[in-house]
Fold:
Amino acid sequence: MKSNLTRRAVIAGLAMAGVPTVTRRALAELPQRSRTICYIGGYTQHGPPGGAGNGQGISVFEMNPDNGSLSALMTYVDIASPSFFVISADSRFLYALSEIDDFNDNHEGCVTSFSVNRKSGELTKINVMRSGGAVPAHLSIHHSGKYVMVANYMGGSVGILPIKPDGSLGDPTDVVKNTGPRMPDRASDNPPGNFAISDHSGSHVHMVASDPSGRFVLACDAGLDRVYVWTLDLHTGRLVPNAKMPFITMTPGSAPRHFAFNEKGNMIYILGEQDSKVVAAAFNAQTGEIVPQQTVSTVTPHFRGSTLAAGILLSPNGRYLYVSNRLGDSLASFHVNDDGTLNLVDEIWMHADYGRSMMFDPSGSFLFCANQRSDSVTSFRVNAATGELQFTWNFTPVGSPTTFAFMNTI
Structure:
């Protein structure tokens, strides 16, 4: 009896089963040379209420080192809304969160671990583990390499997931939930005409990462307007509030979203989502204390209207800092002075809508921006000496992109 299945139907069926849309054989037949692989994730149809998007899963590209263009290789569809992910220091594993609230009956999100083929960039799923809270928005690998730390935005919590020798994830060893007073929806130092608001109905942890020394773990809570500081017991996997400074309260309503450390670890740059400002602060790597030194706007004095800051990124040489602004659709570049303070150098159009995460390619020659609402990734050539960004006119179509990870093959 002749089968009624078409080739298209077979491919669709494989995709629904989580098989990559490029076959293993086809990937293996790609030229075996050192290449730059770019992984891009974002919101899929399966996401939290109001968070569904046009993405398919984790898309894999090869970057052209001459012009920064991206060529599609394959897409992994067996994952829901991978809105943030990170690659291990040795490039053997990739950990991707799913920004959902229905992984289990406790309305948690989850984290998927993948092994990475260092020659081809191919991903192989290892396991999936609960994140410790609803709608995770950020994750990072602890400096020790022993734990994945997850910021659960709607859950208002930080989950600590142990990494096993095979790269798989264990059940959370700790889940810390933050509490605090109700904060205003808008900051008093908003740019003129800003009608955008950040959710201050409760705790909303937006980022968690260790400082460069690995001695402390910090988290931005955009709902409580705090930056928390803990130490992590590497034996038990439990967070301990820092004795000197368990948290610092930022400008009420500013919604601290993300932060970036300089290479020395003595300066931290904290980005306020709601007021689109960066707080440059001294960080004591011995005590974990944060002392604000300066607050600078990420939009020029000419700007009027709504804006929500999204991503913050230091250049590889540490001389320039970049911020993406949604709604205003701009990229701000700052010069980093010798004392760690900032000077706004330029604010340019990102050539797309609702830019979120930014990332440099491994060489630092190009800066990429994930533009969620325009379903595209744009890239800019970076002048390392001046910090200037020059648009490449490369648009890569990706549904609802929000995050990147790069890797050089071997």
